[in-house]
């Protein structure tokens, strides 16, 4: 649909802003143009729309050079959505959208046809603004006004649509609405779209392909997965960024990393003494948020948290929605919900084993509570009723962990736990074999993300070694404490 | 649709009423029946055909031309305060006309006056827009008006100089400068009618483009408008209208501001109708203003420009206030 080859040019021919840019856009696809301020995005778009002449190179639309079209014929091929601006005089929505039919009008007198009327009605319908047809544009909100202009561009019935930062000044709901509609026109009606984006993440979400401009030249072109590369984006934008994936669709997203971290955070170390233990719960209150990954009851998954809670509940605890119950419990006990991650256990929280491992100045703190009443041999895969049993394990690392290290740390911890079961001869009551854990164990690994960097957490690393030994020892000790308490309890009953 | 029909009906009715008042009211009352029965009252018929009617027709043509030119300038420059007078275009036309008289130029026969007048209008319009663009690329409303005022006063001093040097025909030129449509006769009408027709037609051809240009030149370009060509047509058409109006009546201020503004409020900004409706309403307004000018302190006649400025200046202030308030709210 659009073919650009060796395009060079700008406002000043002697000093071109855009330099030998070449790319192609297939019909029905969406191309996003990215680049830092002053990289030539808008200039390139202006050259594509014929507003600025090319010093050299060609732009072909539908197989013809854009210079060969008359103004009206070109407007029947290419529609442009401008950036929002305030206008002195105002038209009604209907008048505004009708102007999109200008390139289809000819002759001295009005030649408004049924086709014109249908195109206008359909464009207003698609943008959901038919009910505003007689409203003056100036009385509409930014989002509604932008929709009217999209409808105007759609009424032009041009197969190629050029957009210049279409979501500027729009809130996220209107951004989504606008881009959803444009995307739908591309997918369903074969509209070809080329859009300049300020926001890398929006471009990644909606475009089939991206073009990254750097000082007027093509730095990268390809699918969002190819173009949005941590190194490339950092280089071109001169910004510290981290690439991640969108949680629901397979498109990369970029997150900005702020500059200097505060030095106080650097010096703060989590120690055994930061834990408070009572009959009701174990609580770690960290002064700064820790990056955590867990299988907790409340706020499982990954996130940044300050409060870590392991709450004691009666063995007879029943709830249809444990998450919601935990939430209200946390609220009642004054924990800030957004900063808290919480587990529960029927084991006695006073019996929690908390120890430090690894280097003294930045230790790894392990905390385990265990109740092995419903121990399970995972390898047996036996059918059993649902009974809660819990070994809750926390590993707090004073260091900087990669995602990889966090996952490896969890693997190491699980292996060490299974070994502790074996050493303590914890049996699965159903199969009579040695258990590997209990039915509803939870694991949490959290890191300060300051200090030493730990790229890996496997058993050969210092981190892995500390986690392995720590979890093994603490779990074994927690099991012993559980058994002791049980003995005392049973002894009391016999008396 | 109904709204549009109503607009044209209303404008025609007002125009017809204005014409009727214009021809019948005065020191001598002219009964309407002399129109089809001139024998009934020879004097009245004579006054009607040779004095009142040409005066009314001329007032109508001048008022309509100025209003239509104002509407077009406002649309093109996206500036609600633009009109031939505030842009200095009328002064340019005046200088052109006075220069013709002053130097006794007779290059194009009886068309010399309107042609020089139009040339002056066009030249000043280009200077004003060119200068404003050099000052401020975005062509802000205030910049253009201020430039218009600067050029207007400069041209005003040129006029004063020429008048001072003329001596003899002083009264005539000053009377003409203040703006008047009296005692011009049919000759003047035939002199400017072809130009007014051409200028009006040029603007009418650009009615759809003017609608597109309300969104800015870039947007108009994207909608398929040949912006350069159309801009010249609109500037040319507007200058021709202004120049020919000034050539026969001198500077009559604010008609091009007040009329399009009222018409926009009542019937919207669609230039397909705004241009012709402004012409009709401008004609009505100037006919009525002229009626007031010659009857209010009868037997002395006021220049009609006094009346239009009396109405126009407050309206200008009002529009300016409203626009600035609107801008303030928008940027808040």
From TrEMBL, chain A:
Record keyword Lipid biosynthesis present:
no
InterPro entries reported in the protein's UniProt record: AAA+_ATPase, ABC_transporter-like_ATP-bd, ABC_transporter-like_CS, AdoCbi_amidolase, P-loop_NTPase
Query: Which PROSITE patterns does the UniProt record give?
Result: ABC_TRANSPORTER_1 (PS00211), ABC_TRANSPORTER_2 (PS50893)
Q: Where on the tree of life does the source sit, at the highest rank? A: Bacteria
Q: Which GO terms describe its molecular function?
A: ATP binding; ATP hydrolysis activity
**Keyword Transport set for record:** yes
- What is the protein's given name? Iron complex transport system ATP-binding protein
TrEMBL record, chain B:
TM regions (residue ranges):
56-73, 85-105, 111-131, 143-165, 185-205, 302-321
Tell me one GO molecular function of this protein.
Answer: transmembrane transporter activity
Alphabetically ordered keywords of this record? Cell membrane, Membrane, Transmembrane, Transmembrane helix, Transport
Q: Does the keyword Transport apply?
A: yes
Q: Indicate where this protein is primarily found.
A: membrane
GO terms under cellular component: plasma membrane
* InterPro entries documented for this protein: ABC_BtuC-like, ABC_transptr_permease_BtuC
Which SUPFAM superfamilies does this one have?
ABC transporter involved in vitamin B12 uptake, BtuC
Residue spans making up a coiled coil are none
The processes (GO biological process) annotated in the record are:
siderophore-iron import into cell
- Annotated Pfam families: FecCD
Q: State the membrane topology.
A: Multi-pass membrane protein
The listed locations are: Cell membrane
Regarding protein family, the annotation reads: Belongs to the binding-protein-dependent transport system permease family. FecCD subfamily.
Q: What is this protein called?
A: Iron complex transport system permease protein
Q: Which organism is it from?
A: Edaphobacillus lindanitolerans
């Amino acid at each position: 649909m659009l073919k650009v080859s060796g395009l060079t040019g700008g406002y000043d021919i002697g000093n071109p802003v855009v330099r030998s840019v070449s790319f192609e856009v297939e019909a029905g696809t969406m191309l996003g143009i990215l680049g830092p301020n002053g990289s030539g995005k808008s200039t390139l778009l202006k050259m594509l729309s014929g507003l600025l002449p090319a010093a050299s190179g060609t732009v072909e639309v539908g197989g013809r050079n854009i210079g060969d079209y008359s103004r009206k014929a070109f407007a029947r091929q290419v529609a442009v959505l401008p950036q929002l601006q305030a206008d002195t005089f105002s038209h009604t929505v209907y008048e505004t959208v009708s102007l999109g039919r200008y390139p289809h009008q000819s002759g001295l007198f009005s030649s408004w046809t049924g086709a014109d009327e249908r195109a206008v009605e359909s464009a207003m319908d698609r943008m959901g603004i038919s009910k505003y047809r007689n409203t003056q544009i100036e009385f509409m909100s930014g989002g509604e006004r932008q929709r009217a202009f999209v409808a105007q561009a759609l009424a032009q019935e041009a197969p190629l649509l050029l957009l210049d930062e279409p979501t500027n000044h729009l809130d996220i709901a209107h951004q989504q609405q606008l881009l959803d509609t444009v995307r739908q026109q591309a997918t369903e009606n074969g509209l070809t779209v080329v859009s300049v984006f300020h926001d890398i993440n929006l471009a990644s979400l909606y475009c089939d392909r991206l073009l990254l401009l750097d000082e007027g030249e093509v730095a990268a072109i390809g699918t969002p997965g190819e173009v949005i590369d941590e190194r490339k984006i950092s280089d071109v934008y001169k910004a510290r960024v981290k690439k991640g994936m969108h949680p629901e669709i397979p498109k990369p997203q970029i997150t900005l990393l702020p500059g200097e971290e505060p030095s106080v955070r650097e010096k703060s170390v989590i120690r055994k003494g930061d834990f408070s233990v009572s009959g009701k719960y174990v609580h770690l209150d960290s002064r700064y948020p820790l990056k955590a990954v867990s299988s907790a009851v409340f706020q499982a998954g990954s996130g940044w948290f300050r409060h870590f809670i392991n709450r004691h509940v009666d063995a007879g605890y029943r709830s249809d929605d444990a998450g919601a119950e935990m939430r209200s419990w946390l609220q009642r006990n004054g924990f800030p919900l957004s900063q808290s991650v919480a587990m529960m256990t029927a084991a006695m929280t006073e019996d929690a084993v908390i120890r430090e491992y690894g280097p003294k100045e930045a230790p790894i703190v392990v905390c385990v509570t265990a109740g092995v009443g419903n121990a399970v041999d995972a390898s047996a895969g036996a059918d059993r009723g649902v009974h809660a049993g819990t070994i809750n394990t926390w590993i707090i690392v004073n260091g900087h962990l990669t995602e990889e290290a966090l996952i490896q740390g969890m693997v190491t911890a699980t292996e060490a736990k299974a070994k502790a079961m074996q050493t303590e001869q914890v049996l699965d009551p159903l199969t009579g074999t040695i258990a590997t854990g209990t039915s509803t164990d939870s694991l949490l690994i959290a890191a300060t993300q300051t200090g030493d960097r730990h790229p890996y957490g496997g058993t050969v690393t210092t981190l892995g070694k500390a986690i392995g030994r720590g979890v093994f020892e603490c779990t074994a000790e927690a099991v012993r404490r559980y058994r002791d308490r049980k003995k005392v309890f049973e002894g009391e009953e016999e008396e | 649709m109904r709204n549009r029909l109503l607009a044209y009906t209303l404008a025609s009715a007002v125009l017809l009423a204005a014409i009727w008042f214009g021809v019948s009211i005065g020191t001598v009352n002219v009964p309407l029946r002399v129109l089809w029965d001139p024998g009934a009252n020879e004097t009245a018929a004579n006054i009607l055909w040779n004095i009142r009617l040409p005066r009314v027709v001329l007032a109508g043509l001048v008022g309509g031309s100025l209003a239509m030119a104002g509407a077009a300038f406002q649309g093109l420059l996206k500036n609600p305060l633009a009109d031939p007078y505030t842009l200095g275009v009328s002064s340019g036309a005046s200088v052109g006309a006075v220069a013709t008289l002053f130097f006794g130029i007779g290059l194009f026969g009886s068309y010399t006056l309107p042609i020089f007048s139009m040339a002056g209008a066009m030249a000043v319009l280009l200077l004003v827009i060119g200068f404003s663009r050099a000052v401020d690329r975005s062509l802000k409303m205030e910049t253009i008006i201020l430039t218009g005022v600067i050029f207007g006063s400069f041209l005003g001093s040129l006029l004063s100089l020429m008048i001072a040097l003329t001596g003899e025909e002083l009264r005539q030129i000053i009377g003409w400068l203040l703006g008047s449509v009296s005692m011009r006769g049919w000759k003047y009408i035939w002199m400017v009618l072809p130009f007014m027709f051409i200028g009006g037609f040029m603007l009418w051809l650009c009615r759809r483009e003017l609608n597109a240009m309300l969104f800015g030149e870039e947007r108009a370009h994207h909608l398929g408008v040949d912006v350069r060509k159309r801009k010249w047509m609109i500037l040319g058409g507007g200058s021709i209208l202004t120049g020919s109006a000034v050539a026969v009546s001198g500077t009559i201020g604010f008609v091009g501001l007040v009329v399009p503004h009222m018409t926009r409020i009542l019937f919207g900004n669609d230039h397909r109708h705004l241009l012709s409706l402004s012409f009709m309403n401008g004609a009505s307004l100037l006919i009525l203003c002229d009626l007031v000018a010659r009857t209010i302190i009868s037997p002395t006649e006021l220049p009609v420009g006094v009346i239009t400025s009396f109405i126009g200046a407050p309206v200008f202030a009002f529009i300016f206030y409203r626009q600035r308030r609107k801008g303030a709210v928008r940027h808040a």
